[in-house]
Design brief:
Layout lengths: L1 E6 L10 E3 L39 E4 L3 H4 L13 E2 L1 H10 L4 E5 L1 E4 L8 E2 L3 E5 L2 E2 L8 E4 L5 E6 L5 E3 L3 E4 L2 E8 H9 L7 E10 L1
Parallel strand pairs: 3-6, 9-13, 12-15
Antiparallel strand pairs: 1-14, 1-15, 2-3, 4-8, 5-8, 6-7, 10-11, 13-14
Length: 207
Amino acid sequence: MTKIYKCWNSYKSNSHILEYKWRERKTDSYIFMQGKNLPFDCGYVERLNTLQDPKDYDLIYHAEISEEKLKGYACMPNNSQAPLVNQKVLDMLLELCPDEFQYFPVTIVGENPKYPFFENHDYCLINICKTVDIVDQSQSKIKYFESGNFDSIEKLFIKNSIQKFNISRIKYSTIEIIAAEPLVKAFKKAKINGVKFELLGETTFVE
């Protein structure tokens, strides 16, 4: 049996959030929450930026904290629902699950007049390219839209057997990021901060 965790809560505390001002940027953070390899065609005219060439991504984040404090985080909480990680975490992910994500460089700028202005390029955005159907719909408490599509999962029960993964998003509720026990153990051993793990349950992996 393998333990499955919900992870990467975007909001740690208001004083440590990086803000992605998506209304001002050419790239909508929506594209990073779909569990798909980019670029892809999502099928919606209003979401054509899913077809945008990654070299044109406009990934600028705004920080209210000092650069010194920023550099203290291996994973940087933010409002874009996509993990921002430093080189140490990126190297770990490339070793553990290189086929399950893409990464893109980001720019972080300081905007708090209390601190000196800075422009930081030490972090990258992680686009998780995998979705796993872990939801036992017969036991979970799920809210649906009138169309019949998933709205949100209020109480989650995991299926007895699911596809093997290290890091993934939940199929039907892709805003949620999940991690398998080996990745969680590696992060805890390396004392990676800025990420929170919440145990969801156990399952048996199938290939």
